[in-house]
What we know:
Layout: H1 2-72, H2 76-86, E1 96-101, E2 106-113, E3 130-133, E4 143-148, E5 172-177, E6 182-194, H3 200-203, E7 210-222, E8 227-238
Parallel strand pairs: 2-3, 4-7
Antiparallel strand pairs: 1-2, 1-5, 3-4, 5-6, 6-8, 7-8
Amino acid sequence: MRLFFYSTQSMPKKTTKNKKKANLNKKVNSEKIQALELFLIVLLALFVIISIASVFLFCHIAQYNASAQKSVSIPVSTVISKVATNMPAQESIGVPVRIKIPSINVDAAVERVGLKNDGSMDVPKDPMNTGWYEPGPRPGELGSAVMDGHVDWWYGATAVFAGLKEVKPGYVIIVEDDTGKTIPFIIREIRTYGATDNATDIFISNDGKPHLNLITCAGAWDIYTNQYSNRLVVFADRDYR
Length: 241
């Protein structure tokens, strides 16, 4: 009887101990789960921060590269500044014999032209040549040197300045004189004039700098006046860089 009594009294104590141990294990497991969840939250937060930083860095690099690419094309204001700053004293310039515009594949001989009977500038006889206005400055001298050329020819044939409408500010023009000297210019702007507009500013400049202005026809052909309705004019400044 005593033995039975002892056994029945001992069993609850053992069960209580097991319950305490189970509760302790459950508490430990819960804390581990909470710690793991906290670790995962911190890891996720770090991933989000790194992702945002990467996107920001990528955008910053892309913007920098875009700015660098833009700076490769020389701004017109920079060209004008360099022309004004680095311009030397007046030099001896020969007669122009050739003009090159690499961007539109122009490489043409230069004829000397003057004024026609009606007072307008004459044009070159050969459609693939350009005409230099001889009464004015030579390209590279102070003032505005002027050259013209045909845009097309009889029966729809193309001429020397067929592609002149494609040039843009910043493009290069190179003139070679009869001494072998090459004189580079940078295009500043492009304008369109009507056939009867006052074009004095094409031939005259008072800023004491060398300029080169190119003229060709544009617009529609007028069968009554036997000429194009407009004139395309490219204004360029000598490049001293």
